[in-house]
Amino acid sequence: xxxxxxxxxxxxxxxxxxxxxxxxxxxxxxxxxxxxxxxxxxxxxxxxxxxxxxxxxxxxxxxxxxxxxxxxxxxxxxxxxxxxxxxxxxxxxxxxxxxxxxxxxxxxxxxxxxxxxxxxxxxxxxxxxxxxxxxxxxxxxxxxxxxxxxxxxxxxxxxxxxxxxxxxxxxxxxxxxxxxxxxxxxxxxxxxxxxxxxxxxxxxxxxxxxxxxxxxxxxxxxxxxxxxxxxxxxxxxxxxxxxxxxxxxxxxxxxxxxxxxxxxxxxxxxxxxxxxxxxxxxxxxxxxxxxxxxxxxxxxxxxxxxxxxxxxxxxxxxxxxxxxxxxxxxxxxxxxxxxxxxxxxxxxxxxxxxxxxxxxxxxxxxxxxxxxxxxxxxxxxxxxxxxxxxxxxxxxxxxxxxxxxxxx
Length: 408
Fold this sequence. Notes:
Elements: E1 4-10, E2 13-20, E3 25-26, E4 30-31, E5 36-45, E6 48-52, H1 60-68, E7 76-80, H2 86-89, H3 92-98, E8 103-106, H4 110-113, H5 118-123, E9 124-126, E10 132-135, E11 138-144, E12 154-158, E13 163-167, H6 187-202, H7 206-218, E14 225-228, H8 238-250, E15 257-263, H9 268-282, E16 286-292, H10 300-307, E17 312-320, E18 323-324, H11 326-339, E19 344-351, H12 357-366, E20 371-379, H13 388-407
Parallel strand pairs: 6-7, 7-8, 8-9, 13-14, 15-16, 15-17, 17-19, 19-20
Antiparallel strand pairs: 1-2, 2-5, 3-4, 5-6, 10-11, 11-12, 12-13, 17-18
Helix pairs in contact: 1-3, 6-8, 6-10, 7-8, 9-13, 10-11, 11-12
């Protein structure tokens, strides 16, 4: 049984959070040993209550238990669905069964998707972009933010309190001890949790983040609290969080950060990469290294988290069955899909009886706007692979290519 928490953040505004320690692969894709939370929010007014989003289906009964600690079913006037993905909408039908008079509010595009919910479709009311709901002295404005990360998504701006309820936007992985970013957690860890979530879940649609933030800025929305559906609420410095979110969206690199990913079946590629990493570190780069070998396999979600703000990406792989080593193909394609922003790339590949990996990697990376500044392939047949002097020469070649690529 998952644990949940109900807490009044301020007079009449509550968070209802459940801690999911059982989902190991978010969306059946992304490794999250740290777990994840589902956050719903409740605004209680003199004219009834508004529930913002919900929990995963498996936690429906617990969500109703949580609601009953604050309101009775007759008090729930509206359920706002900012986003209809099942980790938020899975509990919707059960909540509506519990609260028979509640209406459902969502974007006009959500009206198409709500057809899959028998109770919700009967009580659904579309709200326009910028439309406001007045209830019991509170004013809630709905802002469309498409592709964050489905086309029907929106955010809810509780104007009277300057609280921005954002669903997936600004969300993060993990099950933090506190509710807010200034409670018992390192600021850097909180931002890393959000960075990992952004690149894995919203990554391909990051351009829409910039559009959404620009829209919020033009509307004069300056939140005091950002309340996402996953992870921590942001109140320490919401303005900084919004700027950080925009940097992630734009793929702004951390100067000198270099992501190094390699596959090595028998150690020759790994030995080459070690020398390359040393050479890069001597030149002021800060390499973050992930290797696929016969004894270790890194998490794709963590690789992508570091890809999004790296200045340089180095990918090394052997030729495998006259093609690219399959795990590195997957990594390269996902980096392309989630985190390509015209970054510099270096390709290193080994081969035995025939070469192909370098060619395939170049096709993938250049096909998504990477600038390949150097591509090295070498024959690795034999127990030792290349001699040390040869490896050092190749390392110098890579560093020189990076320098020239930076000047271009």
